[in-house]
Write a structure and sequence with these properties.
The protein is an alpha/beta fold and 318 residues long. The chain is built from eleven helices and eleven strands. Strands 6-7-8-9-11-10 form a six-stranded mixed β-sheet.
Length: 318
């Protein structure tokens, strides 16, 4: 597929899906594609389906039109799956994907083996938003789409500081800025600015954190009790893992937070010596070399021990 437009022949109804627990790249790519499709073919009926996402993203045009109800009896001519490495990552919205007449997957996860009729997967790209942008006619990308895609790139590159930031990433970001995107607004208001509750939760995670592997691994566990005591929800966890990762001397950071009783979302980040996508894959998860995750049911001490052992094996080979 050279251009998104190639998929639109004979199409009237389009669904756009992202992964569970949507982050900046997921929301940005999905809503960016929405605005692009409405720009190139205004007569299309287009619906974005996503779980609830951080309120910081609600400034994006038409973010309030995203549907969080996955039980509609709708069948679409075309369904896009964005930033999702497998069907399970689509969560309850997978029904729209399965029933669609044609499917397209656009992604950048190295673990994605192809789940759609048409698959555009670039593991070297910074984000799904970057991959998506390469399949668009830049002349047809309006300001609304540009803001969404810029947000996606910013969040998956850690404001252009992660190793997935390439010269192409910077060039494409520049093209979006030329559309009139306010870089300072997007970066400050959606990446750096935190609520009081988010800061308190970060403090709790830091307070409970422990070092292992001779100081090379830092880990913290947030329970439902911790979240309830601070009035926090899953959206307030965003960014904590990255703060753990920049601890001096640390090669890998691990954050577990309890989604429901005994079920933990596991976030993994690395600096140089550990491929966390391999570790996440051992537990049915996946992602990138330096940023991955999985879900675990059981004693968090057990998974931390197993993750530590796998990390130790990798570091011993360096």
């Amino acid at each position: 597929m050279e251009r998104i437009e190639e998929t639109l022949c004979g199409v009237n109804r389009v669904a756009i899906l992202g992964h569970i627990h949507p982050d900046g790249d997921c929301v940005g790519s999905c809503l960016g594609l929405y605005h692009y499709l409405k720009s190139v073919k205004p007569e299309l009926t287009v619906q974005v389906y996503l779980e609830e996402f951080p309120k910081e993203f609600l400034f994006l045009k038409d973010a309030d039109a995203i549907c969080h109800d996955f039980h509609r009896e709708e069948i679409y001519d075309l369904c896009f799956a964005l930033d999702s490495s497998d069907r399970e990552r689509l969560g309850d919205a997978v029904g729209y994907f399965d029933s669609a007449k044609k499917t397209v997957c656009i992604d950048h996860h190295i673990t994605n083996t192809g789940l759609a009729d048409i698959n555009v997967i670039e593991a070297s790209a910074s984000s799904a938003s970057e991959v998506l942008l390469t399949k668009m006619d830049l002349e047809k990308v309006n300001l609304a789409a540009a803001e969404c895609l810029y947000l996606g790139i910013v969040h998956d590159t850690g404001v252009f500081k992660h190793s997935n930031t390439s010269p192409r990433t910077m060039c494409l970001a520049g093209e979006l800025l030329a559309k009139g995107v306010s870089s300072a607004h997007i970066i400050d208001d959606t990446f750096y600015r935190k609520t009081f509750v988010q800061n308190k939760l970060l403090g709790k995670a830091l307070e409970k954190s422990e070092l292992d592997l001779d100081g090379k691994m830092i880990a913290s566990v947030l329970t439902q009790g911790d979240m309830k005591a601070l009035g926090a929800d899953k959206r307030d966890v965003d960014g904590i893992i990255d703060q753990l990762r920049v601890t001096e001397g640390v090669e890998m950071a691990v954050l577990l937070y309890e989604q429901q009783e005994g079920v933990f979302k596991v976030s993994l980040r690395s600096n140089d010596l550990v491929n966390v996508s391999q570790i996440a894959g051992e537990f049915g998860g996946g992602g990138h070399v330096k940023a991955s995750g999985c879900t675990w049911q059981g004693d968090p001490a057990v998974i931390l021990e197993r993750i530590g052992n796998l990390a130790r094996e990798q570091m011993s080979r360096e």
